[in-house]
Design goal:
Blueprint (H helix, E strand, L loop, with lengths): L1 H15 E3 L1 E2 L14 H5 L5 E2 L6 E4 L7 H19 L11 E2 L5 E2 L6 E5 L3 E5 L2 E4 L1 E4 L4 E5 L12 H8 L13 H4 L6 H4 E2 L7
Parallel strand pairs: 4-7, 7-11
Antiparallel strand pairs: 1-10, 2-12, 3-4, 5-6, 8-9, 10-11
Helix pairs in contact: 3-4
The chain binds zinc ion (ZN).
The site of zinc ion (ZN) has 5 residues, from helix 4.
């Protein structure tokens, strides 16, 4: 019984947290302290993207202007939805029924916390993340990142993928990869997609 309980807790953690670990290779910026669900909840989401009205908090030490960030978030969300779903980018304004039967709200319900670099995170088998999506809270934390050959916020579309049905353990990553990977970015080299080690 005790083991069943522990198993339930671990399973719950897995389905509620997904995270993408990076290698130390290209990110010279080091790792910031822990960002957990409560810290993400406590941010002031006082910015709003022009197209989808996503609620955004940008940490003070992010070296990228708010307008540039808002543009990236909207533009790549559009591109992800157009690529991933038949309904296209208009789905960002609507409730979307996912293949697992869950419904996710319009992007205006999503809160996005933008941070400069990789941070400590709490996930099974992972302790450093470039991005994390908190299922249930509908909060996404994403780093601007500093990866050779990659655009700013290189894991933004990947984390959006988690919002739209990519499993926390990446078991269905192949259904999303074509629409979440960034072009001209040696993503696979720096992001341990299968870095979630469940053992
Ligand atoms: Zn992921």
């Amino acid at each position: 019984m005790k083991y069943l309980f522990i198993f339930a807790i671990i399973s719950f953690s897995l389905i509620t947290i997904s995270c993408d670990e990076t290698e130390d290779l290209f990110d010279g910026g080091g790792t910031d302290p822990l960002i957990d669900r409560e810290i993400a909840e406590a941010q002031d989401y006082n910015l709003s993207t022009p197209v989808y009205g996503m609620q955004v908090a940008v940490r003070g030490d992010v070296g990228l202007g708010d307008n540039a960030i808002m543009g990236i978030l909207d533009r790549r969300a559009t591109s992800f939805l157009d690529c991933q779903f038949e309904g296209g980018s208009d789905l960002g304004f609507e409730d979307v029924m996912l293949s697992n039967g869950d419904t996710i709200g319009p992007l205006s319900e999503l809160r996005v916390f933008v941070v400069p670099r990789r941070f400590e995170c709490e996930a099974v088998g992972l302790d450093r993340c470039n991005g994390i999506y908190f299922f249930g809270n509908d909060i996404l934390v994403v780093s601007v990142g500093n990866f050779s050959g990659c655009p700013d916020l290189p894991v933004w579309k990947h984390e959006l993928g988690h919002r739209y049905g990519m499993e926390a353990d990446h078991s269905n990553l192949n259904e999303f990869r074509a629409c979440t990977d960034e072009e001209n970015c040696s993503f696979e080299d720096i992001i341990g997609f299968d870095g979630i080690q469940i053992e």
